[in-house]
Amino acid sequence: MSAGLIFDSLLVDVFSARLDFGSDTIKVMLVDNYQVDAGHSRRSDITGEVSSGGYAAGGAAIDAVMTGADGAAEIVLPGAVWWQSSVTANGAIYYKARGGGAADDELICYIAFDGPVRSVNGTFFLDKSSIGVSTK
């Protein structure tokens, strides 16, 4: 089972309308030696992104969805697939991609894997994740 961390800036970004899961470009990137810090708020704060064959810097775009009812909300962050890759990762970071520099991209959450996950000239699968928030 993997563990996760929601970056401190996420709720401010959502409530300030800087982050809209229905229309923004959301991406997921793989990291191998990231030093977890809930205070990180931008992709430029992240070190340790993987760099190897079959993986493009910045990761992959995903179609995130936010639903809500009865005082609760859920953000579903689909997984991703890197075909024909040689990757070793210890976690994944979801973020809003603005299309410019890494200092502009808002962080959403970090997913820690149970240990290193690797693919060697094969397929790297990342399972979906979700974030739930409730007022009850």
How do you describe this structure in short?
By secondary structure, this protein is mainly beta. The protein has one helix at residues 10-15; strands spanning 3-6, 26-31, 60-62, 65-69, 72-77, 80-96, 107-126, 129-134.
Key structural traits:
single chain, 136 residues, mainly beta, five-stranded antiparallel beta sheet, globular
Provide a descriptive summary of the structure in words:
With 136 residues, the protein is mainly beta. It is built from one helix and eight strands, in the order E-H-E-E-E-E-E-E-E. The two termini are 26 Å apart. It has one domain. The strands form two sheets. The protein has a five-stranded antiparallel sheet with strand order 1-7-6-2-3, with no helix packed on it. A three-stranded antiparallel sheet has the order 4-5-8, with no helix packed on it.
Mean pLDDT: 92
Number of strands: 8
Order of helices and strands: EHEEEEEEE
Helix-strand makeup class: mainly beta
Shape descriptor: globular
Number of domains: 1
Beta-strand content: over 45%
Oligomer: single chain
